[in-house]
């Protein structure tokens, strides 16, 4: 796809300095810009590159005034970084705006779908599935029986949506994600063998949720595993059965949340965090990467470590921990002196 400077300025409501008809077809960092590419300058640390870049168009802040000749056409906007992000979003919308039903595919006769949908090749749509308007289902996606998916949701290639799952509007489910697999429910019998506990619940994902590639969300044993509105899940996260994640919480990669734990609203959870089961995590909680959470957490606490401590306490303790070898050596020296004085 090609865009002219005039088209881009129209999208961003910016002012053009240079040739309005110059075209671009790719994006680049300002220091790596080539002919036909679009870049941006937001950080003054990179100002020098605007005089050497070969990019055809550069988005800049309205306050920017060049001190030398600039070969690129400039588009001046109020905030270059935000405008570039807006342009990326627009580009993605255009790029991903596929419609139609590709062959081969399987769609149950009982399935229903709205307008302007896209079904990629080798998709499987089970019985009584309901797909909203503008839903995009990419190739090799499996959607089980009785699944409901809202308007403007995208399911990328290879994702698996098990039966009974409910997914809201404006969601994104990335490749390899699995929604609704059985929870890890087993109980030992008198012989010490494990017997499976049937997992009869479902998964509910509310509106504006992003689920990263390779992330798994297990169905509930009874009731629902619930991902509330606006939650953002990174890649390779494990959400166990009957977990509930509050609205607008963000969780980084490789975090695991054990069964029946409730996480509050507006929490930020770092990568590789382990959260034990049957806990309650409050609202606006911050958990640093690689922490282990084994207790309930109050609203607005910040934690680090395994087992996790209050963030301030952890930092104070770490000062002593990193000096532990020297401390031990000092104690041994004092013990020797005391022994010699006996």
UniProtKB/TrEMBL annotation:
Q: Which organism is it from?
A: Croceibacter atlanticus (strain ATCC BAA-628 / JCM 21780 / CIP 108009 / IAM 15332 / KCTC 12090 / HTCC2559)
What EC number(s) does its UniProt record assign?
Answer: 2.3.1.191
Source species, domain of life? Bacteria
User: Gene encoding it?
Assistant: lpxD
UDP-3-O-[3-hydroxymyristoyl] glucosamine N-acyltransferase non-repeat region domain: residues covered: 21-89
The name this protein carries in UniProt is UDP-3-O-acylglucosamine N-acyltransferase
Q: Where is the active site?
A: 241 (proton acceptor)
Q: Which UniProt keywords apply?
A: Acyltransferase, Lipid A biosynthesis, Lipid biosynthesis, Lipid metabolism, Repeat, Transferase
Single GO biological process annotation from the record: lipid A biosynthetic process
Known catalytic reactions? a UDP-3-O-[(3R)-3-hydroxyacyl]-alpha-D-glucosamine + a (3R)-hydroxyacyl-[ACP] = a UDP-2-N,3-O-bis[(3R)-3-hydroxyacyl]-alpha-D-glucosamine + holo-[ACP] + H(+)
Give the first-level EC class, as a single word: transferase
Task: Spell out the molecular function terms from Gene Ontology.
Answer: N-acyltransferase activity; UDP-3-O-[(3R)-3-hydroxyacyl]-glucosamine N-acyltransferase activity
């Amino acid at each position: 796809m090609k865009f002219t400077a005039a088209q881009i300025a129209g999208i961003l409501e910016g002012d053009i300095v240079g040739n309005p008809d110059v075209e671009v077809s790719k994006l680049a960092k300002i220091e790596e810009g080539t002919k036909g590419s679009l870049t941006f300058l937001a950080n003054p640390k990179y100002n020098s590159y605007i005089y050497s870049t070969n990019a055809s168009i550069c988005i800049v802040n309205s306050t920017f005034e060049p001190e030398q000749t600039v070969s690129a056409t400039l588009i001046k906007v109020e905030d270059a970084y935000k405008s570039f992000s807006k342009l990326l979003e627009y580009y993605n919308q255009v790029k991903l705006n596929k419609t139609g039903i590709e062959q081969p595919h399987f769609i149950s006769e009982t399935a229903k779908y709205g307008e302007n949908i896209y079904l990629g090749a080798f998709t499987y749509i089970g019985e009584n599935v309901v797909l909203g308007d503008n839903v995009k289902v990419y190739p090799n996606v499996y959607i089980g029986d009785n699944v409901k998916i809202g308007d403007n949701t995208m399911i990328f290639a290879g994702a698996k949506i098990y039966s009974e799952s409910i997914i809201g509007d404006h969601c994104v489910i990335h490749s390899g994600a699995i929604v609704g697999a059985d929870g890890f429910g087993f109980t030992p019998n008198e012989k010490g063998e494990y017997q499976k506990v049937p997992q009869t619940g479902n998964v509910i994902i509310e509106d504006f949720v992003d689920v990263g590639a390779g992330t798994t969300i297990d169905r509930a044993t009874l009731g629902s595993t619930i991902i509330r509105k606006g939650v953002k899940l990174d890649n390779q996260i494990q959400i166990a059965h009957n977990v509930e994640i509050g609205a607008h919480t963000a969780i980084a990669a490789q975090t695991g949340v054990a069964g029946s734990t409730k996480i509050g609203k507006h929490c930020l959870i770092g990568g590789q965090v382990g959260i034990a089961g049957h806990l309650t995590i409050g609202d606006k909680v911050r958990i640093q990467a690689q922490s282990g959470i084994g207790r309930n957490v109050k609203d607005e606490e910040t934690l680090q470590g395994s087992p996790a401590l209050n963030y301030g306490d952890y930092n104070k303790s770490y000062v002593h921990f990193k000096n532990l070898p020297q401390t031990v050596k000092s104690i041994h020296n004092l013990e020797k002196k005391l022994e010699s004085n006996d």
